[in-house]
Amino acid sequence: MRVLGVDPGLTRCGIAVVDGGTGRTVRCVAVDVVRTPPDADLASRLLAVADAVEDWLERHQPDVVAVERVFSQYNVRTAMGTAQAGGVVALAAARRGLPVAFHTPSEVKAAVTGSGRADKAQVTTMVTRLLGLDSAPRPADAADALALGICHLWRAPMRARLAEAEARAAELTRRHRARLAEAGRRAAGKGTTP
């Protein structure tokens, strides 16, 4: 499976492609950071992010796009810009019919380091090690995009199994309720028979 991981942002948007192999093997295909000037208007900045994502989708043909889910931050303006950039990424993927998975920062940290409270340096160190890179990806947004790709590759099979189990449980519940309703109808029908 090939994942396009995106750490959304307006000033710096981390973007990476990670391939997953058998077991937990992962390989870095490409990584970069899309930068937009802080003094440019919002629409132009979002367009620059969208154009870059479209280019990466075309060049690398991922199977899925993994985006960091935005949580409220102390700086509402930053959170809004991050959410808007993430929305542009999701839209670009949806236009191509690609599934989009959103992962929280703590999910990504836990998948890569084993701790949902890991700091950026720990994430960068583990991403470098897991992918066998010669040097740490810089800036941190690049490492975060790679971490998103790894996280999705490792969590997707579990999510798929969980969704399958939930679907089976829902079907069993539906069948059980149908049997109970039928038994109730039969019992009601016997009570009114002369």
UniProtKB/TrEMBL annotation:
Active site: 7, 68, 141
UniProt binding sites for Mg(2+) 1: 7, 141
Keyword DNA-binding: yes
Gene Ontology process terms (BP): DNA recombination; DNA repair
GO cellular component entries: cytoplasm; Holliday junction resolvase complex
HAMAP family: RuvC
Subunit structure: Homodimer which binds Holliday junction (HJ) DNA. The HJ becomes 2-fold symmetrical on binding to RuvC with unstacked arms; it has a different conformation from HJ DNA in complex with RuvA. In the full resolvosome a probable DNA-RuvA(4)-RuvB(12)-RuvC(2) complex forms which resolves the HJ.
Protein name according to UniProt: Crossover junction endodeoxyribonuclease RuvC
Native source organism of the sequence: Actinophytocola xanthii
Upper lineage: Bacteria, Bacillati, Actinomycetota, Actinomycetes, Pseudonocardiales
Gene that produces this protein: ruvC
